[in-house]
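Subject: two folds for Thursday's group meeting

Dear M.,

Sorry for the delay on this. The cluster queue was jammed most of the week, so I only got both jobs back this morning. I'm pasting them in the order they finished. Each block is the input sequence followed by the predicted structure tokens. Could you check whether the formatting survives your parser before we put anything on slides? The first protein is the one we discussed after the seminar.
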Amino acid sequence: MATENNNKNKHALITGGTSGIGYELAKCFAEDQYNLVLVARSQEELQQRAQEFTQQYGVAVTTIAKDLFDPKAPFELYNEVKNKGITVNVLVNDAGQGQFGKFVEQDIHRLLQLIQLNTASLTALTHLFLKDMVARNEGKILQLASIASQLPGPWQAVYHATKAYVLSLTEALVVELKNTEVTITALQPGATDTDFFNKADMQDSKIMDTKLSDPADVARDGYNALMKGDDKIISGLKNKVMVGMSNVMPEHMVAEQMNKIQQPKGEEQ
């Protein structure tokens, strides 16, 4: 663990930082005495978390309520942080959602919102804060990808596609940043016990009958990889095996396997 003297003046900005993996990541940073900039849609939840982290860890917590489904929000967020005089030493792009169902039966406007949140807003925030990091030659970025980034996902086609984008972007930036002191890391969890499934209307998916990962374990894996400057980390042995097998199987077989895992209970295709 890093020492207080190293981190007490540093800031970690975490989107989606009030619940799930984002919340657990915020705890990791607070334990290491990073000051926090928490971003989420609910000001009430942000205030609750700010009070919790301030009391428990003694760190400064700045809260900014933003809806990253809005294309203007990443730019507004960046400007608010700059106007507050905060230097973001670590950016964590955690905010993301999915939507369960067959692609042709989905609301296209909802799917386009997911693309905005999962890829466009993430890209904008990465670009805005990365430029400052490169100029300082200091900083770290953690991108929430997923093992979905390497597995075609029937019943969650757009979500899997957005995570493939996140992984591809991250892997490209790893190379572009190799001669700097700035690092970027992709965290690839599998199905994790968070509110993701409720927001994605996935209660009837067969994946809910599988053992879900603990978000605290996922966050710790991601935090440790980030601090070491690793390019990416697949969290959990089961997920490592699944991705490893997918690398040697034909794509159509991987997609069929994911179809069986994710399809509605009682449905066979």
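Second protein, same layout:
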Amino acid sequence: MSPTFIDMGKEALGMFAFLATELVILFLVISYVVGIIQDFMTPEKVQSILSSKQGKGYVIAALLGSITPFCSCSTIPFLKGLLRARAGFGPMMVFLFASPLLNPIIIGLFVVTFGWEVALFYFAIAMSVSVTAGYVLEKLGFEKYVKPEAYDSSNKAASCCVSEPKKEETASCCTSEPVAASPSCCGSEAQTSVIEESSCCSTDKTNVTAVKDPSRWARIWTTTWADFIQVLPYLLIGVAIGSFIYGFIPTDLIVEYAGDNVWYAIPIAAIIGIPLYIRAEAVIPLSMALVKKGMALGSVMALIIGSAGASLTEVILLKAIFRNQMIAAFLVVILTMAIGAGFLYSFIFG
């Protein structure tokens, strides 16, 4: 007897409750741990490493990218800073590829949703292709396709979440110009730095402290919660769509168009991932439902890499930094990585 509409609704609600609870807890735990790491490994330190002689280490660039969980388009302001710091072009490109693909949230979601084997496969592919692509692009001389104005420190790099860098109104008593604050990409607010310095222009040397610094752990939790609140709608949308597919979409339909025997499912999944730009927090729970309905995991792998690794918004922002040849190379790397990972997974584990 075929299931009734009520039975399908119950299945969908049960899947929604399970996924939402599991992924919310996972996101908060991983984000807090990453926040602790980032408190020690600040963007300034990352920029310093990649702009020094150590910046020639492509693996270092990939590892640094993996502990900076930016979305794809929000990596652009950071890339702009690396250009101004004259970082090595190869490591810089490795960072551009690895940062959105290897962030701990995606890896954690992979582990919980698909298991360690799939997560390790994804990590190995994203890491190796990012490093190889950065090395090859540098050796082929693609640095010449960086626009000269991208090195100009007076230019401001807009992100997908913040229209322009905010300025902190607290200025030094001995200068008339405000100090530029570093805005949080995809976060609710820029962190306000605490100024604890004596007044160099007054005689009483009074401490100028604008905001009392909270404890490190409370501050990290506040940032974690702010990031969670912003990501929560995307997470719930992904869970809701996935739960609906799990409860109501016939399994035969998914198998027919995206199953293991459909050779074109992998390249199509990779291609549609870029214009759709589904955030990883949404696409991974959605993918879990698709897999349970019969979608080939190779196609899911291609969809996740395509959507997390690039987006139309990111391409538009990159046009302010790169010429068209470099934009084309960037898209070719992401699509090749997505399609290659999909077929390789199907060949090894299929």
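Two things I noticed about the second structure. Confidence is low (pLDDT under 50) at residues 155-211. Residues 5-162+214-349 form one domain.

Cheers,
T.
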